[in-house]
Amino acid sequence: MGLLCEGLGVKEDRLKELSCLDARVMAAHYYPYCPQPELTKGLTPHTDPGVLTVLVQNEMTGLQVKFEEDWVDLEPIPGAIVINIGDILQIISNDEYKSVEHRVLANPFQEPRVSVAIFFNPGQRENLYGPLPELISDEKPAVYREFMFNDYMGRFFSKELDGKTLTNYYRISN
């Protein structure tokens, strides 16, 4: 948390005050061999809704991240941990940090692809979340409106995963 706060230029315990990492959910993913991957969807493009995601995976490829308009393979490195910025961190940082759109392809290999993700989310679902006031100025106005995390998660789970549309929903139009 200290490095995130330092990167934003806010006091060290600012994100802790917001209970940003207090709720954690772990999910294990198993992608078996798919004999016709070109006919099968893996995990559709999406961003993670919370603050941070910590991912460990075996050495099988399949995870891709969107870079500009292209999908790029994220080649597994033995022993590496993948950290994804989530939508809530993008919003409270007023776009200083960006959530990463990613997807998982169907597995064309005989060996299964396995990953375990820990999603770090705000613990106070009724609190209002939006850009940190100390990051807003005349030169850098708020990009997002405030909302309750409960409402945000309700929207996330009521739709199919489809890219970055949820952060766009809370964006203030200029």
From TrEMBL:
Domain annotation Fe2OG dioxygenase: ranges: 16-122
Highest taxon listed in the record's lineage: Eukaryota
Pfam families: 2OG-FeII_Oxy
Classification via Gene3D superfamilies: B-lactam Antibiotic, Isopenicillin N Synthase, Chain
Record flagged with keyword Secreted: no
An example Gene Ontology molecular-function term: oxidoreductase activity
UniProt cross-references to InterPro entries, sorted A to Z: IPNS-like_FE2OG_OXY (IPR044861), IPNS-like_sf (IPR027443), Oxoglu/Fe-dep_dioxygenase_dom (IPR005123), Plant_2OG-oxidoreductases (IPR050295)
Keywords: Iron, Metal-binding, Oxidoreductase
UniProt signal peptide: none
Keyword Metal-binding tagged: yes
Alphabetical list of PANTHER family matching this protein: OXOGLUTARATE/IRON-DEPENDENT DIOXYGENASE
Name the UniProt record assigns to this protein: Fe2OG dioxygenase domain-containing protein
Organism for this UniProt entry: Capsicum annuum
